[in-house]
């Protein structure tokens, strides 16, 4: 046997693949405390205990009993079971593993320089990191990466059964509303393949290309219909569009704020796509151009689309970067384009690589444990205020901060909330009422009276807090994070 193959870890491509996975895991490790994670956990708990799919609201008094399009029910049960059997550490580990596996799936489809591919993958990880959180969307990120690979391999002539789109979208429609990303990817693939075929020289393969496009169109229509196979029925189709209408003032639906340093990798990726495309000296398929520009457009409209853009753009950027790299190497003088490897024996290289991977893995696990401590999980939430309410049991309805609604459904389920992160459920009416109440106007007081609210849990800086203090409400609890006011 060749000594260079005595160990998998002694081979650079394998080492870089494992290293990239571990670094992606590390970068995407998160404290499990996303504002929406809490109501997903609560929904999963109720469904597990009641042995039924939750399709009506049980968390609020403003929408109690109303129909709720729950496109996440499978993911919610999965997250709850993770918490039940492994606590917050299990959730944090699962989220990071999902990230590592998603980007490893992308890495394994790349060809060319392995080190360059690893750098591009890690840029994609950094780009996606700001919105990679413990929510059902991480399932959509993986499925989008799988679908993109599936379509790319089919375009390369590999046999890929299009009937697989049917179970894929049935599953997708029952685990997260991000199936819309998959559908947009299918449409961009059809549009790109059509343009490529129209602009290509006429040859004997044109009929086969048109036939392939027609078949993809038929299966795409079938997949769209398959989305309706879920407990919510065809009403799930309105979810992505309705959410856009009512959520434009919610942070994840705003455009990226490039004053934030964590959004800068997105800029780097966009700039590198432009630069490498110009240097690559390689004809670009329209299917790649349309999907990258399409998902870039979605990203600049709403930051929640950053991770899908990174997942779609990374393979294209890697292709162009490798072509540009080869173009640059071809311009170097002879003998300058190759680099000699360090004089290490395969056995020694395997030992060093193994030690590096073990140390990084241990560091990532220890970091995950630290991120999952109760202090980290609760640091941005009114945990002490919740403890006061649990011990004092004030009577009446609770008005809450929008960002804390999900947290309260999980930690204080005996008090239904005014609002939480399910914007599609509450709609413009309740969202606008919540905004009005927090302003502390005369209409605010009228709305509090109409809803029979006599407990308020908000951030101390909200105008309503000062107004209620002046109106004789009692400050029952206050700290740096929150204040509880009671109208006795």
Tell me what you see in this structure.
The chain has 488 residues and is mostly helical. The protein has two domains: 3-331, no CATH class; 382-486, no CATH class. Helices cover 61% and strands 4% of the residues. It has 19 helices and four strands. Strands 1-2-4-3 form a four-stranded mixed sheet, with helices on one face. A hairpin with a 4-residue loop joins strand 3 and strand 4. Helix 1 (12-27) packs parallel to helix 13 (346-371), helix 4 (114-128) runs antiparallel to helix 12 (306-331) and helix 7 runs antiparallel to helix 11. The chain starts with 11 loop residues before the first helix and ends with a strand. Mean pLDDT is 91; it is low at 1-7.
- Radius of gyration over all CA atoms, rounded: 26 Å
- How many domains, as an integer? 2
Helix content: 55-70%
Average pLDDT works out at 91
Strand order of the largest sheet: 1-2-4-3
Low-pLDDT regions: 1-7
Work out the strand percent: under 5%
Class by SSE composition: mainly alpha
Using the alpha-carbon principal axes, give the shape.
globular
End-to-end CA span: 83 Å
Order of helices and strands: HHHHHHHHHHHHHHHEHHHEHEE
Oligomer: single chain
Largest sheet report: 4 strands, mixed
Number of strands: 4
**Count of helix runs:** 19
Features:
globular; 4% strand; disordered N terminus; mainly alpha; four-stranded mixed β-sheet; single chain; 2 domains; 488 residues; 61% helix
């Amino acid at each position: 046997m060749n000594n260079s193959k005595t160990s998998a870890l002694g081979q650079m491509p394998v080492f870089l693949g494992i290293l990239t996975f571990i670094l992606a895991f590390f970068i995407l490790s998160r404290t499990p405390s996303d504002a929406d994670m809490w109501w997903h956990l609560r929904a999963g708990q109720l469904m597990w205990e009641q042995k039924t799919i939750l399709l009506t609201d049980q968390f609020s008094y403003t929408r109690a009993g109303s129909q709720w399009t729950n496109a996440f029910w499978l993911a919610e049960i999965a997250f709850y079971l993770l918490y039940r059997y492994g606590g917050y550490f299990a959730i944090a580990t699962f989220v990071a593993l999902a990230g590592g596996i998603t980007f490893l799936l992308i890495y394994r489809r790349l060809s060319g320089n392995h080190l360059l591919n690893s750098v591009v993958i890690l840029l994609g990880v950094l780009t996606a990191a700001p919105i990679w959180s413990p929510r059902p969307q991480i399932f959509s990120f993986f499925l989008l990466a799988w679908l993109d690979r599936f379509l790319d391999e089919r375009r390369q002539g590999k046999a890929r059964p299009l009937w697989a789109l049917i179970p894929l979208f049935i599953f997708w429609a029952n685990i997260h509303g991000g199936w819309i990303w998959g559908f947009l990817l299918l449409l961009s693939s059809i549009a790109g393949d059509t343009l490529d075929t129209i602009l290509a020289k006429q040859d004997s393969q044109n009929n086969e290309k048109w036939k392939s496009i027609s078949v993809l169109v038929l299966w795409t229509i079938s997949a769209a219909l398959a989305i309706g196979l879920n407990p919510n029925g065809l009403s799930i189709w309105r979810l992505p569009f309705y959410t856009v209408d009512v959520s434009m003032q919610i942070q994840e639906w705003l455009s990226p704020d490039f004053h934030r340093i964590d959004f800068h990798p997105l800029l780097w990726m966009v700039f590198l796509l432009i630069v490498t495309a110009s240097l690559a000296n390689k004809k670009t398929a329209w299917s790649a151009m349309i999907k990258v520009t399409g998902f870039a457009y979605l990203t600049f409209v709403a930051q929640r689309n950053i991770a899908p853009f990174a997942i779609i753009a990374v393979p294209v950027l890697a292709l162009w970067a490798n072509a540009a790299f080869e173009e640059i190497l071809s311009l170097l003088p002879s003998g300058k384009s190759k680099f000699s490897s360090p004089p290490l024996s395969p056995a020694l290289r395997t030992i060093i690589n193994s030690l590096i991977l073990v140390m990084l893995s241990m560091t990532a696990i220890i970091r995950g444990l630290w991120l999952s401590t109760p202090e980290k999980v609760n640091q941005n939430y009114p945990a002490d205020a919740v403890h006061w309410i649990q011990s004092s049991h004030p009577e009446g309805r609770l008005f809450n901060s929008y960002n804390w609604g999900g947290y309260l459904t999980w930690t204080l389920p005996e008090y239904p909330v005014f609002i939480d992160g399910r914007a599609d459920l509450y709609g413009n009416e309740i969202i606008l009422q919540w905004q009005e109440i927090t302003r502390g106007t005369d209409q605010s007081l009228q709305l509090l009276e109409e809803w029979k609210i006599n407990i308020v849990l908000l951030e101390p800086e909200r105008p309503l807090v000062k107004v209620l203090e002046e109106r004789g409400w009692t400050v029952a609890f206050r700290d740096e994070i929150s204040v509880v006011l009671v109208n006795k």
